[in-house]
Structures are given as C-alpha cells and as structure tokens.
Amino acid sequence: MTGTAEASLALALHLRGGRVTPQRRAIARLIDEAQMHVTAEEIYSQVSERLPGVSIPTVYATLELLEELGHVARVPTSSGPALFDTRTDEHHHMICRACGHVADLMASVDRERLVSAAGAHGFHAEQVQLVVQGLCDECAAAPVS
Ligand SMILES: [Zn+2]
Ligand SMILES: [Zn+2]
Hints:
Largest sheet: 3 strands, antiparallel
Number of strands: 6
Oligomer: single chain
Order of helices and strands: HHEHHEEEEHEH
CATH superfamily of the largest domain: Winged helix-like DNA-binding domain superfamily/Winged helix DNA-binding domain
Bound molecules: zinc ion
Mean pLDDT: 91
C-alpha cells in the first residue's frame, strides 16, 4: 500500500463525489498513526476529543472505506467492538476474553486444506484468518474476583 490512509481516503471520496470532512480526515489520520490493533470505539473516542460532532456510523463507514482501500483489515472477533488492524497481510490473532488484549499470532496453518475443505461445501474462500481465544498470561495469573 502506497501513501497514507488520509491521502487515499481523500482521493477516493473525491472520485466518488463524497465529502472530505475534517472528521473523516481525522479518522484516516488516526489509522495512519495507529499501532496495529484498534477498535472502532477507540477511534471514535479519540476523534471526539479532537473534533466534536463525529458519530459512530461515520466512524464505521470511514473504517469500511479504508478497509476497501486496503489500509486496514477487520479482525474477525466474535464479540466486543469491531476490531481493525493496520497490518493488512493475512495473519492470525490471539484474543484474551477477559481483558480484550489482541496480539498477532504467527503460526503455519494448512491454508490449502482449509480452503479446499470450504470449497467442498461449495464455499468460495477469500481469506483465512484464525482467532485463538482464551486468556492472556496476566489474566490467567490474576486471582478470580
Ligand atoms: Zn487478558
Ligand atoms: Zn494483527
């Protein structure tokens, strides 16, 4: 991906006749600055601090456009707020169910076998992203309250 999320968002909105609002720019700028994993709600509260008047639907719509443009990838979580990743190559995640901590997981999976098993069900696989759920080391060590 070349260029910043902010620049390509502005270009895409311009080409589609959408408005390049300060709120949308701020969301894209946060994605440019974000370290890997960020939730839609974190983006919302950070943008709200700088620019009042931003709405959750605007945050989602802008993140979806940035996803389409290849600047963020959505992490397939089963619960909690929508999670986005500034790392966009196909990789896996470990997610703590207690504190929500997200970490990349580099491990080899038999991608071809998963894709062909999906194909045997008539499913056209596009990407394989695994989420390993459980407890992070800290939460596993914490006393149950
Ligand atoms: Zn944890
Ligand atoms: Zn990741």
